[in-house]
Amino acid sequence: MKILVTGSAGFIGFHLVKKLLDRGDRVVGIDNINHYYDPQLKYARLAQTGISPDAQQWHRPVASSIYPGYTFVRMNLEDREQLDRLFAREQFSRVCHLAAQAGVRYSLENPHTYISSNIVGFLNILEACRHNNIRHLVYASSSSVYGNNTKMPFSTSDNVDHPISLYAATKKSNELMAHTYSHLFGLPATGLRFFTVYGPWGRPDMALFLFTKAILENKPIKVFNNGNMVRDFTYIDDIVEGVVRILDHPPGGTVKMHSAESIEHRSNEQRTTNNELQTANNELRTANNELRTTNWSAAEILPQQDNKLKRSGNPALAGQQTPYKIYNIGNSNTDNSFSVPPPGGMRQQGKDSVKDGAEGGHITSAPYKVYNIGNSSPVALMDYISAIETRLGRTAEKIYLPMQPGDVPRTEADVSNLVSDLGYKPATTVEEGIGRFLEWYEEYFKIKKYNYAPHYQSSEI
Question: Which of 135, 235, 267, 340 is placed for a possible disulfide with 433 were both Cys, Cβ 3.0 to 4.6 Å?
């Protein structure tokens, strides 16, 4: 099986490539090796998989000196012509799309970079998959899509329509775009909402790397929201194990379609489903008519609605100060013959329908799925810092700061569908994971050795 991994010089991409190669897959990796953080770390990761410094040259395939089945190409996802040539030449069976402009805070200062990489680049991936008979597209989403939701743990059936950073908005957009291509063209696609990934070869802008570096250099660390933060820290090996299992199990749904005739066939099915929804629309019209006959004022109605929204666990919908609103403007007395399926797709209950976790638990006919991949054991930020201090044998000087724009106070993953579908649940403890990271950090930067955690062992259920 030949697999394309985008972002293969990145943190997760590097580990995924090694995992796939070690089990015997053929892999082509692509990355633009940008300067969001030190590119030397990216080249060092590539060297671990046998890719020489020739990788600096654009659009030139570089074969691995360690793995016969691995080739790396430096390219931008926005370069549609080069991407299409790559797909046509290599004939991939599956694609794991991890390349993206990362970082919540960076998106506040460089918004255009996120649109170019995360939206335009992802569209090019979708188009290439559509036209090259890709059997499964797995792509990175993010736990950031949950925004300020307060219901814990975060579930893939939760509403995620209120992102609080542009980064999160691009990831939510990716999920919607992928579902559209799954629905229209039968492209099997699975989105992965990663929760605070950490471990060896990690990104220098992430908390563990920043804290470790500052403590070892006797510099203060910045602790946001005055330390009142909780994160579902997830070890890199757990993330990669989940990605590989999901990559091997494409979602069910309607078969891949390429012809106008097959799309017309789906349209006929949808019209049949619309007829089944007429009764519900009639009931809605009756309710609207009853509402018009009441003497309720907006002041009487809106508080009732706000109470319902507060109970939903989404503060972005319930009395928050964000100056944001959406209205429907349409004729509520339109002909029922033009009714459409609810969000999430047709409510078909046949064998070709699958749960669409990203749309409130509705049924979709598309071969589409979304998973959380997280440890589901959230850790307080101050406990995380304490674990680092214990391993290093030093106490950090702390500067307490308010919450950063675009950040959230707590994350926690509901991984029940990962367990039920694939029999897998991440389980590495923070103490084990931090120990593994510090062991790598010592080797990479050639510094004094500390006491480290025992070796990590994955668990299955």
Answer: 235
